[in-house]
Amino acid sequence: RYDVQIEPKLLPLTGETFKLKSANTRPDARSDVSARGVWRTMDKTFLDVRIFHDGNKSNSGPIDKAFLSHEAEKKRVYNQRIIEVEKSYFTPLVFSTSGGMGIEADKYHKRLATLISTKRGIPYSAAISHIRCKLRFSILKTTLTAVRGYRGAATTWGDGINTDINLIPQQKQFF
User: Fold this and answer.
1) CA–CA dist 91, 105 (Å, integer)
2) What's the confidence (pLDDT) of residue 42?
3) Distance (Å, rounded) from C-alpha 73 to C-alpha 22?
């Protein structure tokens, strides 16, 4: 019913031009997630996620301005293409490593909690609490992986070579 897709390809461009030069015009452009029925029944919404470290020098100043800046950057890249070519909604989901979320992400999570509470017949407070708890653990896991690296078992690829996903190849081939 909700047609959730991970990293959906965006429709190819057929000569469209955009006002902003920073708009994503690549033929292999993707969003992070898409789903139907988020903002309106049967309408598709594309979501793109960014997690930033709020202690970084580039994010100095008030935290709300950092969230707005990251949301604006995501919108510059995706918004016009998704609205005009995909005929869909775009929502940037911006989070900080300390657990905060941007205005758009907050609205999205409130809407998601409303949909879940209505569908399952549970209180809104239980739905939003569950979503926020899962979100915090996902951000924590992502942050720890970024800081200390992936420490899982080595992955065996089809060629029989045991490699870790974090490894950088010894030799690079340039064509």
Assistant:
1) 8
2) 87
3) 9
Helix, strand and coil content of the chain, in percent to the nearest 5, comes to 40, 15, 45
Picking from 115, 109, 103, 151, the residue whose alpha carbon sits closest to that of residue 134 is 109
Is 104:94 a contact under the CB 8 Å cutoff?
yes
pLDDT over 90 percentage in the chain: 29
Give the separation between CA 30 and CA 100, rounded to whole angstroms: 25
Residue 161, pLDDT above cutoff 80? no
For residues 7-25, average pLDDT: 82
Residue 60 is encoded by which pair of tokens?
């100095």
Contact present, 79 and 29 (Cβ < 8 Å): no
CB-CB contact of 102 with 40 (8 Å): no
Alpha carbon dihedral 16, 19, 24, 26, in 10-degree steps, equals 40
Query: What was the pLDDT predicted at 108?
Result: 92
